[in-house]
Protein 1
Amino acid sequence: MFKKILIANRGEIACRVIKSARKMGIKTVAVYSDADRNALHVTMADEAVHIGPPPANQSYIVIDKIMQAIRQTGAEAVHPGYGFLSENMKFAEALEKEGVIFVGPPSPAIEAMGDKITSKKIAQEAGVSTVPGYMGLIADAEEAVTISDQIGYPVMIKASAGGGGKGMRIAWNAQEAREGFESSKNEAANSFGDDRIFIEKFVTQPRHIEIQVLADKHGNCVYLHERECSIQRRNQKVIEEAPSPFLDEATRKAMGEQACALAKAVGYTSAGTVEFIVDGERNFYFLEMNTRLQVEHPVTELITGVDLVEQMIRVANGEPLPFKQEDLKINGWAMESRLYAEDPYRNFLPSIGRLTRYRPPVEGPTTRGGIVRNDTGVYEGGEISMYYDPMIAKLCTWGKTRAEAIEEMRLALDTFEVEGIGHNLPFCAAVMDHPRFTSGNITTAFIAEEFPEGFHGVSLPASMLKRVSAAAAAMNRVAEIRRTRLSGRMDNHERKVGDDWVVSIQGEDFPVAIRADRGGATVAFADGAAMRVESDWTPGQSLARVLVDGEPLVMKVGRVTGGYRIRVRGADLKVHIRTPRQAELARLMPEKMPPDTSRLLLCPMPGLMVKLSVNEGDEVFEGQALCTVEAMKMENILRAEKKGVVKKINATVGGSLMVDDVIMEFE
C-alpha cells in the first residue's frame, strides 16, 4: 500500500480524502494557494505545499506546480478529488511519465469518457440510447443558432469539458442560444481551459438519475445502485438521495448493467459515474460519464456501507474489488443537502465573507435511529473566497425509510448554525417540507416550477405556526422570570410575571395562557388547544432544542426588541411576545416602508464587472441585457426589469463590485 498520497484539490473533498487515507494509515500531502493558506485541508494533512496565487488557473490547475509538489514531498500517488485536474488527461499522463500512481482511471478512459462529445459517440457505437444532439465542434454563436434551430428548442448548450453546472445554458429561442453560447464558451475557458461547446435537445420533464460504478484492474466492474439528482438549480445539483424514489428493480438493474458495459468498453478502472436522463415512462438516455469521484458520493456510501475513496485507493494499488454485484444491497435511504454560500433571497447569487458562526449538527447516530454526516472544508472564523466553488458543506442523513431520512434532514438543517454570509440552508429546509418532494414526484424542473419567482422565505403552515408559538411563549416566560431575578433592583419594586400573553407571528396573533411547572409549561390557546413544551433552553443560547407534545423542534433563536428572531424549517420569523395591553397598542403602530430602488440597478452579489451592454442615454426594454457580472467562476447577466432610459452608469469594466452597489441609474 502507498505510504504517502498527495491530494490535488482543496476544500471539502480534500478533507474527505484525508479522512479515508488516515484510516488506512497513509500519510497525506495538501496543496494550497494564497487564499487557502489557513484552510482546513491544509491543517488536516501531514504536509502542505504552497502552489501559487488564488486564481485556480494560476495554482490548482497548473500541472507543473502540482508535479513540483509531488517531487518535493515524494508522494507515491495522487488523488485528484473532483473538478480542477480530476478529468484532465494531460495530468494523468504527466503522472504516468513521472511514475506516480493516479488514483483514478487510466488516461485513455479519461480521454474517451471525460470529453462529452467523444463519450456520446462511443455510447452510440455501444448501443446505448443517447439524447439527440450535435456532436461536432461549433465555430461561433451564429452556427450555434443554426444547429439549435435544426434540433428544435429547447436546447442545452454544454461545455465539452464541463462539470458542476459551469458552461451550461438552456436556450428556448435563437437569442438565448446566441447569448448562451458566448457565456458557456467564456465560462468553459475560464474554468477548464477548454472552450469547446456542443448542443443537445433538452428533454422536458426529465429526472436526473446516475449510476455509481466501481471497476478494478482485474476485469471486475460493479454498480453501487443509483442516486436521484433531480433537484437542481442552474443545472447544479442541490439535493441528492439514494436510492431513487422513481426506479423499480428492473430499471435499476438495466441502468446498472448498461453503465458497467460502457465502463468496460473503455477499459475503465476506479470509481466513476454514468449519468442518465429518465423520462416519465422510465426510459433512460445516456448523458455523460464523470471519470472521477462525484460530489454526492456520500449518499451511496451511506446505503451500501462502501467507502468509495478507500476503494479508489485500493484499486489504484492494484487490489481486486472485495465484493461482487450480488453483495451490494440497498440498506435504508440517504439524503444530501449541499450547503452553498449563496443568498436564496437574492436569487441564489454568490455570497462571500467570514463565517462568524459555523456549528454543524453532531455527526453519528441520532436518538431516532438515523445517522448524520457532514462533509466540509471550512471552520468557524474562516473565509468563503470569491475564487472557488461556493460550497460550504454537504449535510447527509440516513434513515431506514425515505420518510425517516427526510425527517432526519429536517432536524439536521434546523440544527445547522451558519452566520456571517448568505447561504441556502432555508431553501434546503423548504424543499424537505415541500409536498411534491416528500411524495417523490420530482423532475429537474422542480425548482423552476415550484419557485418561479425565486425564493422569498417560507410561510409556515398553521400546525407548525402554533408549535413555534407555544415554544416561543414558554421560552419567553423563562426569560421574563430570569429578568425578575436580576440583582440591584429597587426595594418594593418586585416584578411579577403574568400568565397571559399574545404571540405575534407571521401576521397572526395568538393569545395564550401559560401554566408552568418544574418539568416545563403547558401553553393553552384561545381555541381550546393546548401544547406541552419541555426544554432546557436558557436565554442567550442561539439554538433551542424543544419538545412540543413530545415531538422535537429545533430553532435558531436571536433576541429582537419585544421578542425573538426565530429560524426554523426555512422560515425566518420575527416573533413578538407581548402582554395583552402591549399587543393592543402594537396594532396601532404604523408600518415602516422600504426605500424606493425601482430606478436603480443594484449589484446583487460581490463580483467583477466583465461587460457593459448599454451606454448612458440608451433606451432599454424589459428583459434586455444590461451588463455581465462574474462571481465564483460564473457569469451572471443582469437584465432590465422594465422599459426605461439609462441616466448614469457608475461601474466600469474590470471593476470590483459589492452587494447593493449602484451599477446604473434610470430616468
Protein 2
Amino acid sequence: MKYLNGKWKKGLVFLCFAFILIVTSCSTGSNPTSGTKKETKQAKQGGTLVVARQSDATKLDPQFITDIPSANVIYQKVYETLVTPDKDMRPQPLLATEWKQADNTTWEFKLRKGVKFQDGADLNAEAVKKTFERLLDPKTGSPQREKFAMIKEIKAIDDYTVQFILSYPYAPLLSILGSNEGSILSPKALQEDSSKLAQHPVGTGPYVFDSWKSGEEIVLKKNPEYWGKKPNIDKVVFKVVPEDATRIAMVETGEASITDQVPVTEIARIESSSTMKLYRTEGLAVEYVGFNVTKKPFDNVKVRQAISHAIERKSIIKGVYNNVGKLANSAMSSKVFGYSENVKPYNYDVNEAKKLLKEAGYENGLDLTLITSDRKERINMAEVIQSQLKGIGVNVKVQVLEYGAYIDAINNGKDDLFIGGWGNATGDGDYNQYNLFHSASRGPAGNSFFYNNPKADSLIEAARREQDEKKRQKLYEEVMQLEMQDAVYIPIRVYEHLAVSNKSVDNFWLSPVNYLMINEAVLK
C-alpha cells in the first residue's frame, strides 16, 4: 500500500476511519466566531487571549491527565500528536506526514523533518519511541497505559521512520494516536526528570509553557521557533474564575476573551449582549449518574435498578439544562461509532423502584451520598435527584467538591453515587467502552464504576480487534445492553458544547471533544 499523504486511499486505513466520517459529518454545530478574510486581514497580530475557566488544571503531563479541562490547556497548543483530527474527527497529518499499514498489526509512520521540541531536542523516531515506551512502562504508572495496551513494540527504522507493532489488530489506532494521550514528549525532558512534566510541559507545539500559579492562572506564550504556521496571538492566559456570572461579565467587558464553561442559565443574557457571541456545537460526550458497584448497597444490582427507575431524566434535561443537549440512551453519543438506538435505559417507574428496593432488603429506605463537581448545572442536577429519590425512601446527602478533589474521589472509589461525564476523544466506541467499562480500566483510567464483568470485557476486546465495521457495531450494541442490564450507570444527557467570546475575538472553534482550538485565533 502506498503512503497516505493526508488523503483517503483504498485499503484498511480507509476501513478504520470511514465510519468516523459517517457518524460525525452531520454535525449541527456552527462557527459564528469565524471572521471573513477581510476581517482577518484587519486583525492585529499579537495581544493576549484570556480564557476564563471555572477550575484549574490538575496536572499537565498528557500521560497522566484524566480530564478534559486539564488536557484543554496543552492539547495541540504545547503538545502535538502524530496525526490530528479535523472538525469531522478525520485524521490529518501533523508530526507524521505519511503512514501506511504493512499488515493488520504493523503501522509505519514517516515523521516531519526539521521539527524541534521547545527545549531544543530534535523530533525523530527515537523521540516517538521513548514517548510511548515511557507510557507503556508499568513502572511509569500512567492511567492512560491501557488505552495503548495493543502496542507490543515501537521500532525506530531510521531517523524519520517509526513502526508500531501491535499485539492484535486494532481498528481505531490512528484515532487514539491523535488524542491528548498520544502527545509526543521531549526526550530531553524525559531523560532529565520526567516528573517535572506534570508542572512544566515540553512539546513541539505553537505555544510554549510559561508559568502556572496554582489556583490562579496558567500562561502560554507564542513559540518563536515553531515549525509550522505561527499563532497570531502572543500570549494565552487560562485564568481561574470560579463564579459563573463573573466569567460572563469578564467576557462582556473584554477583560476576558473567551469562556468555554457557559451556564445554560446565561444563554439569554449572552444572546442579547452587544459585545458577546455564543458558540454552540453538538459534542461526543455523555453525562450520567454512576454507581460505585463495589460498595454497599450498590453491590446489589436490584438497588442500582431501583435508583435507575426512580430518576426522571427528561425533567433534568428541561429543568436543569434548559434543553441544551439531548436525552441520552447510553454512555455513547449518536455521533460516536458503535452507537445503537436499540439500547434502552430504565423507564421512570416509582412503583417498580420501591418493589426492587424491597426485594433487595431495603424496604425501610437508604441513606446515600451523591458526589458532584462544583459546576452549577451538576449541583442543580444533584438537588433534583435528591428530591426525586425521596419518593422511594432514599435519603441523599449531596457532597459538592472542587474539581480536583472530585476527580480524586471518583478515581479512588471514595463515593457511593456520582454525577459524571465522559468526553470521547476519538469518535470511536472503543474509547468509551474500554475506558469506562473494561475491568483493566478501573480507577483513574476511566472506569469509576469499578465495574468488572468478564463477559463485558470479552465483548469489548472483540470489538476493538474486529475489522468489519458492521460486526463491530453489533458487538458494541451487545455490550451496551449488558451494561444497562447490570445497571452500571444512568445515562442523562448528550452534551452540547457552549462557549462565549467577546466580539473582538475571531477564528477559534470547539472540537467535538470540547477542546478549545485557538491556534488560528485573532484579536481585532
Protein 3
Amino acid sequence: MTGSLILDPLLPMVLFYGVVGLAALALGLAIWRRLPGWWLRGLAGLALLAALANPAIQQEDREPLTDIVMLVVDQSASQRIGDRPAQNTAAIANIEAELARQPNTELRTVTLGDGEGDAGTTLMTALSEALAEEPQGRIAGIILVTDGRLHDIERAPRLPAPMHTLLTGQPDDWDRRLVVSNAPAFAILGEQVSLTLRVEDQGQAPATDSVLLSISIDGDAPLTLPVPIGQDIELPIELPHGGMNVLQFTIPEADGELTNRNNSAVVQINGVRDRLRVLLVSGEPHPGERTWRNLLKSDSAVDLVHFTILRPPEKQDGVPVNELSLIAFPTRELFLEKINDFDLIIFDRYRRRGILPSEYLDNIRQYVEQGGAVLISSGPEYGAAESIYRSPLGTILPGAPTARVFEEGFIPQITDIGQRHPVTEGLDALSPNPDGDGPGWGRWFRLIDVLVPEEATTVMSGIDNRPLLILNRIGEGRVSLMTSDQSWLWDRGYEGGGPQLELLRRLAHWMMKEPELEEESLWVEPAGQTMRIIRRTLDLDTGDVTVTHPDGTETVLSLEEVSPGRFETLWEAPEIGLYRLDDGEETSVIALGPSAPREFEQTIASATLLEPLVESTGAGVKAISNGDVSIRTVREGRPASGRGWIGITPRGAYQTADISITPLLPAWAWLLLASTLIVGAWLREGRR
C-alpha cells in the first residue's frame, strides 16, 4: 500500500492560475502598504487556493510484477552443424537454472528457425517481434544463443535492457566452401561460356594448396580436376544439349570441416541453338518437296541447304551425272568435310542414282553413329531396287522395305506406345474428331510396307496397323523413318489437314536430343520449395523416386500417372538446398534456392555484427565453449558483464489492484480556516 498527494482543481487551470495571480497581487499590495496583518491575508489566500486545488490523498494497492528475461535461441541451419545443437541445449539449461535462483524473475524463450526462402538468420526480426509482445518496463535482460551469423542486423530494435550473446562454436572451427559466380542464365550451343569458381577456407583451416573439383552435367559421370584454394578459376564450359543443363560442382569433404553443405554448387544454364542447320536432300520433284522447303524456310532460326535432283529418273538422255549442273555443286564439301556442321539431314524421296557415292552415304552413317540425326521421308522408291536402304545407310535405317506399296486412303493412327512417346503424345488432341472416333485429321494415300527391328519404336501406324513413323537410336545419334511421302496433304488442309507442323517440330527436337522430348527422363519443376517431380517413360509403370536431402537424409516418394507415359507427384521440400533424385534408372539434381544457402556462406561463429549492440547496453559476449555463466542483478546504467557472469537489471514493475482517494480536508474546513485567517487579519489591522 502506497500513498501520494494529488490535486484535482475545481476550476479550469486557466482560471485557477488567474486566481493565483490575483491572490499574489493582493498579497503584494498588502506588503507594499505595510499592513500588519499581511501574513494573515497571505495564509487566508493560500487556504482559499488550496480549497480550489482540491488536494486529496491517493492510496494504491500494488501487486509486484515479475521481471522478464528474453532468451532468443538460434536454431537456423548453421546452428545445426557440428556440436552446436548440444551447445544450444547446454546454454538453455544453464540460463534456466540461473534464473530459477533469481527472485521475481521469469524467462521468455523464443526459438528461431530458418528464414523463409533464402532469408538466412532473421535474429533481430524475431527479437523485435518478441519484444513487441511484452511490456518494455518489465524487460530485465535479453540473452541471445547464436553463432552470430545473422542477416537482418539493420532491423535491430531499441533495447530496453542489457543484451548478452552466448556464442556457439569452437575456437578451432574451420570450413571450406565452393563459390560459383558469373554463371550465365543461357548459352548458345557449340560456343564456350566461362564460369568463375572459387574455393575458400574459413577459420582455422589446415594448410592446403589445392583440392579436387568434380564437374557433372545432368547427373552424368563427373569429370575431376585439381583446383587451387583461394583463387578465382575461369572454367570454360560447352553445353552438350539444348534446353536446361544442370551443372553440378563438388569438392570433397575434408576431415574436420564443419559441414559439407557448402561443398557443392549447382548452376542451371539454358542451352539455346543459335541456328538450326538442316540439309534437305530431295530425290525428285513431287508435291511434298515444296512443303518441306516452305516449312523449313518459314523458321528464321533454320539455316537450310537444299540439295535437289531435278532430273526425273525415267529420263534417259545419256548426259553424264557430273554434267547435269550449271555450276559444280559442292557435294564433297557437304557430305564429307562439312557434314558434322549439320544438326539434321533429311532425305525426301531420295533414290540411289550415282549422284551421291557410297562413300558419302557411309560417311552419313558414321555421322549418325557419332551423334547426328537423319530423317527419311520415303515414297515408292524406298521399296524399289534403287532404295536408299540398299546402301551403306541401310545398316542404320529402322525399316527394311518388303517392296509392297499400298495406294489407298487411310487415316494415320497413333500406336499404343506412341500415346506415351513425347513425339506423338497428345497429338490427336490438336485435331479432335467431332464424331469422337479416332483423330480428326485427313487421310493419306500411300504407304510403303517395311519390317521393323525389335529395337526400333513405331509411334504411328497406317493401313492394317503397318508402321508409318518409326524412331530408333543408333550409337550416339538418332534416325527416324516415315513410310509415306504424303504428309504434305495435312499442310494443304486436305480433308481438314492435320498437325504436320507440330509433328515435324517434335520429331526434329527429339532427333536433336532436346531434353523435353526425351522418352525416358526424370526432372523437377520447382515453385518456391514445392517440387513437381515428373517421370516420363514408355513403360506402363514406374518405380518410387528416392529424394536425397541436402543434409544426406532420404525420402521415398511414389508417383501417379497423370497422362499416358507421364507420372507426377507434388512434394514440399523441408529446406532450400541441393536435392538429388533417383528412381533406379534415371537421376536428376535440383537446387531450391542456391545449392549452398545463405546460412552456409559464413559458418564460423563470430559476434562481430552483434558487438556494437551488445556494448551499447553494457552487456557482453560469452563463448559457450568456455563453460557456464552465472547471472547477477545490477543497477541500471552499471556494467552488466564480467568474467564468467552476465547481469540483468531488476525493473520493479507492478500492477495496481486498487486505488482509494481521500480529500485532505472537507470543503467546509477550508472555508472555516480561510474565514478565521481573514477575521484575524482584520482584527490585527483594526488595532492600528
Protein 4
Amino acid sequence: MLSRLSIRDFAVVAHAELEFGAGLTVVSGETGAGKSLLVDALGFLCGARADAGAVRHGAGRAELEADFSLADCPAALAWLRESELDDGGACQLRRTLRADGGSRAWINGRGASLAQLAELAGLLVEIHGQHEQQALLSRATQTGLLDGFARHPELLAAVRETALRWRGLRDARDALLGRGDVGERKAWLQHQLDELQAETLDPGALAELDASHRRHAHAASLIAACEHALEQLGGEQALAAQLQQVRSGLLREAGNEPRLHEVEAMLDSAAIELDEALGLLARIRDDLDLDPAVLQQIEARLVRVQDLARKHRIAPAGLSAHRDALAAELESLADADARLLALDRDIALALADWNAAASALTGSRRKAGDALAQSVQALIAELGMGGGRFEVELETVADSRSPQANGAERAEFLVSANAGQLPRPLRKVASGGELSRISLAIEVATLGVDAVPTMVFDEVDSGIGGAVAAAVGARLRALGETRQVFCVTHQPQVAAAGHAHYRVSKAARDGMTQSSVQVLDADGRVGEIARMLGGARVTTEAQAAARTLLVESR
C-alpha cells in the first residue's frame, strides 16, 4: 500500500508531501489545475521513460519519492529479498528527472535500473489511465486476465511443462538428424580420433615434451655450464677446499671465542649443501645427451602436435579436451538409431500429454470466459453502457501437432457499446471513456485475481454523469474495501464516494503558475463537491446537494 508520496519541482508542483491510507482516495480540482500530476508522478516512479518536460521551469531536476508498506504485498517483499534490496517490511522508490532528459532511480536507498524499478512497481501499483489502459487491448493481457479469473495455475503449469518437454525432445531429435549420415559421421570421427590418440596430448606430457626439446636443443651449452661450475666448486683449489680450510682455522681459535663454534656450524651446513649441489650438477651433466637423432625425434613430435593444433584450429593445450569431446560424440553415435527411435516414441508421448493438458485448459478457459462475460456485462450496464454486450472469444492459435506453452488458444475480448451492434474486438471499438469503464468493470469482476495492492484510475468517469457516475463511484468504493484505490475525477458523485479526498489547485506565485495539493476535511469536502456540482459560484443549494451525496455514498 502506498503510504507517502513526495513531489518536488515536478511540472507545476514546487513541493508536495502527501500521506495516504487504505480505501478509495479521490483527487479533484478545476480543469488545468494538474489533477493528473499525481498519476504522472506515480508513472515515472513505476519506470516510465524520462521526460525533460516534466521538470518544473527553472529547476535543475525533479525529485519523486514514494513509500510503500509491504504488509499486503508479499510478492514485492520476496522480490526485494531475492534482489538483495530489502529493508524490513517497507519499500521506498525514488527517482530524479534532470532538465537535460537524464534520470536516476533508487530502491530502498540503493541505485537501481529502470528495468528493476518497473519490475518491482508492477507488483505494487496498477495504473489505469487514458494511455496506460492500452495494455488491456493486448490479447496476451486479455488471456492472462482470463487465466487469473479462472484460477487454474495447475492447468497452466501442466501445459507449459509438457510443451517445454516436447520442445526439448524435438530439439534433441533435430540435433541428431542435423549431423547428417550417422555412418559417415562416425567414420570421420574415428579417423580424427585415431590421429589424436596416436600422440600423448595431455597438458603435462606436452609441457614435458617442450622442456625435453629445450634440454636437447641446448645440450652443448648446458654441458659446458655444468663442467665450468664443477671446476669452480670442486677440486683441491676450488670453493669446497677453501671452505674446509676456513672451518679448520676457526675451530683452532674457538677455544678463545666460543661464538666461533656457531660460525663453524653454519659453514658446515654450507659445506653439506655445496656437496649436494656438486652431486646434482654431476648428475645433470651425465644425463645430458648430444645425440642429434634424439633431438630430431623430439622435433618431429612437436611438429605433429603443431600440425594437429592447426588442423583442428585450437591451441596445443586444448587438444586433449578436443580429443575427449570427439570420443564422447563417437560414443553417443554408437546407438544413434536406437536413440532416434526412443526420441520419436518420447516425442509422441509428450505430444499426447500436451494435447490432454491443453484440452483441459481450453475447457476451463471456456467456462471461465462465460462467467467473466456475464459479470463484466452486468457491470458495464451499471456504468452507463446499458444494452452493451461483452463476450470472451477463444481463438485457436496452435494445432494438436504444435504444442505451445500458453495453450492452444488466446482470448479476445469482444464488446458492443450500444444495443443492436455486433460485438467487435475491444481494441477496435472502445473510446477512451468506454475503455476506462470497461477496465473498471474487469477489475471489479476479477477482484482478488491479482495481488497488486494499489490501483490508480485516471479520468475513469470521462463522458458520464448522474446515476452512471454514482454507479462508478459505488464500484470504486467497493473496490476500495479490499484494495487501495486512487481515482482522479471531475464527477461529484465519484468524489463523494471516496474515503479520503484531495484537491489540486493552481495559483500564480512570483510570476509563475504553481499547483498545490491539499487534503480536505469534512467541511472542505462539502465545499469542493459543491463547486463540482455548481461551478465557480457555490450556492447553498449546491452545498446541501453535496452533503446529500456524501451521506448517500456511505
